[in-house]
């Protein structure tokens, strides 16, 4: 049943009754043509939807070369410039089929892609704020289904070939949220912080370091500054710029200016207790990684020598 056509003629009297048969024939013909057009559109939409789902499935699994994936995306009109966020939604009422139908409409409206993996609906949506996208999906999908939805998310990412890694990160957020007893909630790497790292089955320390102090490390590398070292000294001196300056053998004003630059790079929230703890953990992880890489380099040099 595609719909109903109604004919409501304005004419009255014998002339209208005489035209009834003709009007009925015309109405039947219009109905057939309209139904045919709707069926053709539905078939075309279904075919395109299947092709888009296949592309997204390959993106999630990392199948195919970057060039081939980009060409397929271009043919389907998928914006290759991004940015995108990945959202993994798990219906808690067992209504996966209804969730998939909802996801088809939702991603079509937002020019995204959708797939199904491990009992969850996976969405690739345009945007830069993964947390906001997750909350929007949670609100709308839980309303449509009538029961809670647990959502993990990650991103943004601009390179389509990086969708697979972003999906794994979003999936880890979903698993961590479940382990923490947060069923029915939403979580992103930024919201979970190091808790997500600890609860993940395959911790990505590099991702945690980059998401926490990446701008500082990048600034140091580009400008040949010592912001990361200043951060370490600042925390080691219990948050005293004066004592940090003494350990660094610089003027206290220099430390103050560096801390201002760090606030510009990380945002003023880095001084809040929870984020400050994550910054300290990231600094320690980075220091440990640097020491391990240096040891490997030395061992490789001795082996060659």
Key words describing this protein structure:
5-stranded mixed β-sheet; 305 residues; elongated; 13 helices; alpha+beta
Question: Low-confidence runs (pLDDT<50, min 5 residues)?
Answer: none
Sequence of strands across the biggest β-sheet: 2-3-1-4-5
Q: Major sheet, described briefly?
A: 5 strands, mixed
Give the oligomeric state of the chains in this entry, treating copies of one chain as homo and distinct chains as hetero. Answer: single chain
Helix content: 55-70%
Strand content: 5-15%
* Count of alpha and pi helical runs: 13
Tell me the number of strands.
5
Describe the structure.
Helix content is 65%, strand content 10%. It is built from 13 helices and 5 strands. Strands 2-3-1-4-5 form a 5-stranded mixed beta sheet. A hairpin with a 2-residue loop joins strand 2 and strand 3. Helix 10 packs across helix 11. It starts with 13 loop residues before the first helix and ends with a helix.
């Amino acid at each position: 049943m595609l719909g109903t056509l109604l004919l409501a003629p304005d004419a009255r009297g014998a002339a209208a009754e005489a035209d009834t048969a003709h009007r009925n024939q015309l109405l039947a013909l219009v109905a057939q043509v309209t139904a045919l057009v709707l069926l053709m559109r539905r078939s075309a939409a279904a075919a395109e939807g299947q092709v888009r789902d296949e592309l997204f499935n390959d993106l999630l699994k990392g199948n195919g070369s970057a060039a081939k994936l980009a060409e397929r995306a271009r043919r389907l009109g998928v914006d290759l410039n991004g940015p995108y966020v990945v959202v993994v939604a798990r219906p808690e009422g067992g209504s996966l089929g209804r969730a998939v139908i909802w996801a088809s409409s939702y991603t079509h409206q937002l020019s995204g892609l959708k797939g199904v993996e491990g009992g969850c609906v996976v969405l690739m949506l345009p945007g830069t704020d993964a947390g906001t996208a997750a909350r929007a999906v949670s609100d709308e999908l839980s309303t449509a289904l009538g029961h809670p939805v647990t959502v993990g998310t990650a991103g943004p990412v601009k390179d389509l070939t990086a969708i697979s890694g972003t999906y794994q990160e979003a999936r880890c957020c979903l698993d961590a949220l479940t382990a923490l007893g947060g069923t029915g909630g939403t979580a992103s790497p930024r919201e979970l912080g190091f808790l997500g790292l600890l609860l993940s089955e395959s911790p990505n320390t590099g991702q945690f370091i980059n998401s926490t102090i990446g701008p500082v490390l990048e600034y140091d590398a580009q400008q040949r500054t010592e912001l990361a070292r200043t951060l370490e000294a600042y925390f080691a001196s219990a948050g005293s710029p004066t004592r940090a300056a003494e350990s660094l053998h610089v003027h206290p004003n220099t430390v103050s200016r560096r801390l201002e630059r760090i606030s510009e790079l990380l945002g003023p929230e880095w001084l809040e207790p929870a984020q400050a703890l994550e910054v300290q953990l990231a600094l320690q992880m980075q220091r440990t990684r640097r020491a391990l890489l240096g040891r490997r380099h030395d061992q490789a040099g001795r082996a060659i020598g």
